[in-house]
Every structure is written in C-alpha cells, then in structure tokens.
C-alpha cells in the first residue's frame, strides 16, 4: 500500500472490516439457524435442545465482551480480530463433526468467544482509529454487512445441504468463511499505520465514576432497558426459531427456506439504511415505534402461516426484515441519544450485557413454549404483544429528549 492516499487507505480498511463482519455475523447469527431442522431430523432433538447451544452462545458472548474490550484497549485490534477469526473458523470445522448435543454446546461456546473477539466491537475500535471524519457513514456501511451476509450465505448453505448434506456443507462453509476472514485480516495487519488517531479518552475522575451507579437506577434507564431487552428477546428468538417453525410446523419445503431467509435479511439491509435515515429527519422514538409495530404485525402473520400461503410467506419476510432491522438500528441510536457523553461507554456496555442475556432467555423460553403448546402460535402472538408494549415504552421517552438531536455516535452498536 506504499504511496496510497489516506482516503484510499481508510476505505480499504473499511472494505476489510466489512468482509470480516459480513462473514462472522452473517454465518453465526443469521445462517446457522437454517441447520436446526436438519439437526432435529438427524438426532431427534426437540426445539429446546437444538436451540440450547445458541443460548450458550449468547451467554458466552455477553460475559466475554467486557474482557474483550479490555484486550482491545491494550493490544492491536488487528491481532484480536485475527485470533477471533481463527477461533471462529475452528468452531465451524468442529461443528461439521458434531455427534452429540454437548459437543454442539461446546462448539457454540467457542463461537461465542470468537465473536467477542472479531465481532462489531473490535471492528468499531479499528474503524474509529481510521475515520476521524465520515465516521457515521462508515459505521452505517459496516452495520449493513451482517444483513448482507444473512442474505447471501443462506442461499449457498441451503443449496449445499441439498447437494452434500449438512455436515459437508458446514465443513465447506468453515473453509470458505475462514479464507475470507483471515484473508481480510491479513490485509489489515500488513498496514500497521493509522491515518487518524482518536484523541485519548480522559481518565475518569472519581466523581464521574460515582455518577454511573445512580444513573442505572433512574426511571429513564429502567424504561430503556425494559424496552431494548424486550426487543432483543423478540429479535433473537425470532431469528433462532423461524426456520424450525417454517420447516416443522408450517411444512415449508426445505428448498424454499433459504430463499425466505435471504429475502428476510435482504430487506433488513434496506431497513437499516432507511430507518437510520428516518431517525435523522423525524422524532427517533416515533420512528422506532413504527419499526417495532411492523415487527409485531409480522409476528402475527407468522403465527397464522400455512404452507400454501405464498403471498403471506414472502410478505412476512419483507415486513419482518424491515421491522427487525429498523428496531435494531434504532436501539443503537436511542442509547446514544440519551447517554452520549463521558459515561456513554459504560452505560452502553451495561445495556448490551443485559440485552444479550435477554436474547439468550428468549431463545430458550420460546422453545419451551413450543414444546408446551405443540407449536409456536402462542409464542409468536405473545412476542407481538411484548413488542407492542415495548413500542409504548419507547413513545413514553419522547418528552425526555424533546429538541435534542441524536449524536454522531448513534450508529455504534453491538451486532
């Protein structure tokens, strides 16, 4: 990269980060659930069993995020991403040789640790170092990478399952994803210089530290945590269980399932961009409420799905993709709008930890409801009602930020 302009270097780094984030999140979060029906057929597992590893994945991701942040403050983010990429590749290769539930739990624990090291937090640390100007646009581009991965990888994995079976497909996916991620990291590691340097964060005074704990016991914080935690409960449960519902309960052909996943995440690419734009131009809380209500309506449609209702199926995928991505994007903007300032990082870390654990809880709770009721109908209707309550809680926050604009950090987020 000798002689390259700073602008060229910045966007080259962003391209590498985009590929890392698209491959890591696009596969672990958005594509592996496509395998659940295959695992249930192969091992005779119930919904609560096949989603148990994912629950462990989110718990491990939550508890290892603070130590990963400590490492990122002290060592090269490029090296941390390289280690995480290696662990993620090894995890996918081990996935293909899984023969028992507890082996799969161990694999997902490894994947959770890997994503803590090569997920959005480490990507954002590197991106922030390179982009002093245009950081918001660069962050928005990076956020769309996971949805793009969710749109592309299910098509490849679905085709592979039909031709080679799920074991060989996961093996090939691990090799392909590892090549993309490690190749991108190698490119980033070659250029050790940063074009811009973020001013060092002043050391927090004891007075500032004393302000953090009281902040966590305010009514505003309680409302935000309840709303965002409810949304993570819904979003993670939906992404983890929709494949089981469509394949097992609705009876959708396995060959059709990847196209539904691809449309869902393809629309989420559009949703992240559009709702981010709308939140800049209109009241954030009302925009977020609209996204949540779209997701709630999509959940009602999913609960009434039949194998022959093609229009309803693809309509659901579009509406759910837009609502899911809009709600997720607005969560990040909401936290920054209320807490931007010297305490922002610590408050954000606390909310991310709680939200991730809520996502893990949602994964198992919805599985248990299915086994109790025999299908997902009651679970999806309950999730729609929870989403409606969450939208009302968000609207109650409108008066707290009247006249204030979301800060530039708004698009920084955990997924």
Characterization of this structure:
By secondary structure, this protein is an all-alpha fold. It folds into two domains: 1-193, Growth Hormone, Chain: A; 208-415, Up-down Bundle (Growth Hormone, Chain: A), CATH 1.20.1250.20. Helices cover 79% and strands 0% of the residues. α5 packs antiparallel against α7 (120-130), α11 (219-249) packs antiparallel against α16 and α12 (257-281) packs antiparallel against α13. The longest helix has 31 residues, at 219-249. The protein is globular, with a radius of gyration of 21 Å. 50% of the residues are buried. Residues 189-209 and 403-415 have low confidence and may be disordered.
Q: Which short descriptors sum up this protein?
A:
415 residues, mainly alpha, Growth Hormone, Chain: A, 2 domains
What's this model, at a glance?
By secondary structure, the protein is an all-alpha fold. Helices cover 79% and strands 0% of the residues.
Determine the structural class based on helices, strands and strand pairing: mainly alpha
Tell me the number of helical segments per DSSP (H or I, 4 or more residues long).
Answer: 16
- Give the CATH class of the largest domain: Mainly Alpha
Mean pLDDT: 81
Provide the CATH architecture of the largest domain.
Up-down Bundle
What is the count of β-strands? 0
Question: Can you write the helix and strand succession as a string?
Answer: HHHHHHHHHHHHHHHH
Regarding quaternary structure, how should these chains be classified? single chain
Give the terminus-to-terminus CA distance: 30 Å
The main sheet comes to: none
CATH topology of the largest domain: Growth Hormone, Chain: A
**Computed CA radius of gyration, to the nearest angstrom:** 21 Å
- Helical percent range? over 70%
* General form: globular
Q: What is the number of independent domains?
A: 2
Low-confidence stretches: 189-209, 403-415
Strand content: under 5%
- CATH homologous superfamily grouping of the largest domain: MFS general substrate transporter like domains
